[in-house]
Amino acid sequence: MQAVPSISSSGAPANSFGGARVVTAGVDTSHGTILYLDDISVSFDGFRALNALSLTLDVGELRCVIGPNGAGKTTMMDVITGKTRPDSGTAFFGQTIDLTRLTEPEIADAGIGRKFQKPTVFENHTVFENLELAMKCDKHVWPTLHAKLDAPARDRIAATLDEIKLLHASSRLAGLLSHGQKQWLEIGMLLMQEPQLLLLDEPVAGMTDDETMRSAELFLSLAGKYTLVVVEHDMDFVARIAQTVTVLHEGHVLAEGSMDDVQRNDQVIEVFLGR
């Protein structure tokens, strides 16, 4: 893949995927692609965590990323979110936003949200208050002290509660939620920040079978409205939600395609799935 050219655009129109309308204001996705990683390499003390990694994501796609420990999955997400700077290569959000030139807060504000494996919620606040605190707005001291929720903001919180299936628990303290419910609440908090790309790191680790099933339903419902990258070790879960699977190994893409495609790939079987 060639380096992404800068294209003058005041913002591309919304794109569709799977029948859902995708909001892309502020990010030029006129070519239908929301993320470009090209020839990304990262080394730590002589260990090459990413080795000429190239990957693209279409708008509204649900992409699963799998691979053995040390394959580069976390480093890839660190590069996308600005936590790690690549030694070489390019990373673009849409056609014009060079992620390698932005700070972590700037990247989050541009529309990339990341959820880590362990949920981080405000346990002494209610579910509703967690979403209110996460809402994308002016967080300076004076506006925050005098902010009042208007009807549209309340409606948006209610819609997000319904989307993450926690409307019935809106007044419950977050600390009293189950592990799975805390994971969904944190995803809801990300949604309140109006992202376009969501990076989810092992989102079903530690969940019950029922919670895992509900998470699959949630992610499938979000695909199309948002672009999702799911890094997961639970292959049954991946098979349930996967549209496209990318297999990383030693810092580069080993294989890519449908779950059936990668399960039949001899190299993938050898290094990851096992014979």
Estimate the global geometry from the Cα principal axes. globular
How much β-strand is present in the residues?
Answer: 25-35%
Q: Helix amount, in percent?
A: 25-40%
Overall strand count: 12
Task: Please report the distance between the alpha carbons of the first and last residues.
Answer: 33 Å
Assembly classification: single chain
Question: How do the strands and helices of this protein lay out in sequence?
Answer:
Layout: E1 15-17, E2 20-22, E3 33-44, E4 47-58, E5 62-66, H1 73-81, E6 88-93, E7 97-98, H2 104-110, E8 112-115, H3 127-134, H4 141-145, H5 151-163, H6 179-192, E9 197-201, H7 209-222, E10 227-231, H8 235-241, E11 244-249, E12 252-257, H9 259-264, H10 266-273
Helix pairs in contact: 3-6, 5-6
